[in-house]
């Protein structure tokens, strides 16, 4: 282990807000699963996952309990403290100094300002492009007004947001280039004509138009990879090279090696370390070592990827620190790295790279 891993400040470069409501056992554990809101199979529990075990390892001491206490005891203590106080203790136990918050998820989630206050930290907003377009469509009556208002909304959001994000990365593989004006007007007309208020944006032409509009602002663009292999995005990476806009590949696990490979191949592409470590729990050090085999160390950024539960912010931060300490500490012990270099790289991964990509104050 190295001391820097346990003490370095963290920039959580991608996360969501936390729920404002009290949770019962069943609702709580759905957030431990691979998709928030999906229940476990009958007779099973999501506490029996790497994430569930990590929650029981890292979170109980922050609420005054022993590590690995039974879930029912933990949730009883959580209710005793109340959602506000429990959230405050958990978030302040992460060591996260800055949260970059995607505000595009539905639900009663705390916004960036609330998250910052609870965690005694800073927070900035990440704007989800699909939601922005849907909000514009709700107030635009014609194709011309929609496209004009959309351009204005993207420009306006860039003035206050720290980044844009999209879940449409999978639609960029076949046609990464920006669509032409006629294509865009036709797609907008079809979408608006058949759309009901609240319908999501799925049209591939409009999505490509929206992403290229965001790229033009110069803000970093975060691409959700999910369970897809990101290598087909090489065409989009090549098409956007030289624009001066950084791309950040989110949630690459289990294709984390492919994400690291892309980050190494293109100067403007970065890879997220978040759920790759938070979801693998006791195996996080092995996964981190695999990523560090392929990507330059200046191209990797910490995140928790947390959504809904402050416990997931804790797990993300503690899993990262523990994995980082084990991997770099092992290399120092073997004589492969000096301690000074290990501490420098730990600072880069934890906060320095994010500060450079997102233009954050030192």
Quick structural overview:
With 362 residues, the protein is an alpha/beta fold.
Structural notes for this entry:
The protein is α/β, with parallel strands linked by helices and 362 residues long. It has a single domain, classed as TIM Barrel (Alpha-Beta Barrel). It is built from 16 helices and 8 strands. Strands 1-2-3-4-5-6-7-8 form an 8-stranded parallel sheet.
Q: How many individual helices?
A: 16
CATH superfamily: Metal-dependent hydrolases
Oligomeric form: single chain
Largest sheet: 8 strands, parallel
CATH topology type: TIM Barrel
Under the CATH scheme, which class? Alpha Beta
Tell me the β content.
5-15%
Provide the low-confidence segments as ranges. Answer: none
What number is the mean pLDDT?
A: 93
Shape: globular
Strand tally, please? 8
Number of domains: 1
Helix/strand order, N-terminal first: HEHHHHEHEHHEHHEHEHEHHEHH
Strand order of the largest sheet: 1-2-3-4-5-6-7-8
CA-atom Rg in angstroms: 21 Å
- Gross CATH architecture: Alpha-Beta Barrel
Determine the N-to-C terminus distance: 26 Å
Keywords, please?
8 strands, alpha/beta, single chain, about 350 residues
Lay out the secondary structure:
Elements lengths: L2 H5 L2 E6 L9 H6 L19 H9 L12 H11 L1 H10 L3 E7 L9 H8 L2 E7 H9 L5 H16 L4 E4 L14 H14 L9 H12 L5 E4 L9 H7 L6 E4 L5 H10 L3 E4 L1 H5 L5 H9 L7 E2 L8 H24 L5 H20 L4
């Amino acid at each position: 282990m190295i001391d820097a891993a346990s003490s370095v400040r963290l920039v959580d470069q991608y996360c969501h807000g936390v729920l404002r409501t009290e949770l019962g056992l069943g609702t709580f554990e759905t957030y431990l699963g691979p998709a928030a809101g999906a229940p476990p199979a009958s007779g099973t529990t999501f506490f029996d996952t790497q994430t569930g075990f990590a929650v029981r390892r890292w979170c109980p001491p922050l609420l005054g309990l022993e590590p690995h206490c039974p879930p029912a005891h933990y949730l009883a203590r959580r209710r005793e403290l109340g959602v506000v106080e429990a959230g405050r203790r958990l978030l302040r136990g992460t060591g996260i100094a800055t949260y970059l918050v995607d505000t595009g998820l539905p639900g009663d989630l705390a916004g960036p300002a609330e998250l910052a206050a609870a965690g005694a930290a800073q927070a900035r907003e990440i704007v989800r492009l699909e939601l922005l377009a849907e909000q514009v469509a709700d107030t635009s009556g014609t194709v011309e007004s929609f496209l004009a208002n959309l351009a204005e909304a993207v420009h306006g959001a860039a003035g206050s947001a720290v980044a844009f994000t999209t879940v449409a990365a999978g639609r960029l593989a076949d046609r990464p280039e920006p669509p032409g004006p006629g294509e865009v007007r036709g797609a907008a007309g079809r979408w608006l004509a058949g759309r009901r208020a609240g319908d999501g944006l799925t049209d591939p032409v409009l999505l490509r138009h929206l992403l290229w509009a965001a790229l033009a602002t110069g803000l970093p663009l975060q691409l959700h990879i999910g369970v897809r292999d990101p290598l087909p995005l090489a065409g989009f990476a090549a098409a956007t090279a030289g624009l001066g806009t950084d791309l950040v590949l989110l949630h690459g696990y289990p294709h984390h090696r492919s994400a690291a490979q892309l980050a190494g191949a293109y100067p403007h592409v970065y890879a997220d370390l978040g759920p790759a470590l938070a979801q693998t729990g006791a195996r996080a050090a092995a996964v981190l070592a695999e990523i560090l085999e392929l990507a330059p160390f200046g191209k990797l950024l910490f995140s928790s990827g947390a959504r809904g539960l402050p416990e997931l912010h804790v797990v993300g931060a503690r899993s990262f620190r523990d994995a980082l300490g084990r991997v770099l500490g092992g290399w120092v012990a073997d004589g492969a790295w000096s301690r000074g270099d290990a501490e420098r790289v730990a600072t880069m991964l934890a906060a320095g790279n994010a500060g450079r990509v997102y233009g954050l104050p030192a």
